């Protein structure tokens, strides 16, 4: 992966030269054409992605109605699919490239674990950022759930 592309991702901008080299050595560039899937809900998760260029749309499909709902649009510098680094479980959403080509930096779970086990400080910082993002989403979801519960109670 090209170091200059990684340097444009806020999470990576403070890495020293050695950390940048390690990361560039394990990350792969993935180019996705407009409207094409990055990954699908229910697939096994083996990697996460950092958006280098473009927009990725995150959709969740209802099991009952099979209807897909847009839940987020993510842009340059953001991370998507990060739960893959935590548990390697099934994808909880689908992601597609927006109206323009998307350039992604892919980090596979096995490579991340190797970096983490080597004690690389970057891996710990990435895990902190994942935890902060997950907590933020959990708080937002809890707030929405309480609004639904309160609306049902008032009705």
The H/E string reads HHEEEEEEHEEHH
- Alpha carbon gap, first and last residue: 55 Å
**Secondary-structure class:** alpha+beta
- Which superfamily, in CATH terms, is the homologous superfamily? Jelly Rolls
Provide the domain count.
Answer: 1
The share of residues in helices is 40-55%
What's the mean pLDDT score? 88
Level-1 CATH class name: Mainly Beta
Query: What is the makeup of the main sheet?
Result: 4 strands, antiparallel
How large is the share of residues in beta strands? 25-35%
- The poorly predicted ranges are none
Summarize, please.
The chain is an alpha+beta fold and 155 residues long. It is 40% helix and 26% strand.
What does this structure look like?
This protein has 155 residues and is of the alpha+beta class. It has a single domain (3-154), classed as Sandwich (Jelly Rolls), CATH 2.60.120. It contains five helices and eight strands. The protein has helices at 3-7, 17-26, 83-86, 109-117, 121-154; strands at 28-32, 37-39, 47-53, 56-61, 68-74, 79-80, 94-97, 102-108. The strands form two sheets. Strands 1-8-3-6 form a four-stranded antiparallel beta sheet. Strand 4 (56-61) and strand 5 (68-74) form a beta hairpin. Helix 4 (109-117) packs across helix 5. The longest helix is centred in the C-terminal third of the chain and has 34 residues, at 121-154. The radius of gyration is 17 Å and the shape is globular. The chain starts with a helix and ends with a helix. The model has no long low-confidence stretch (mean pLDDT 88).
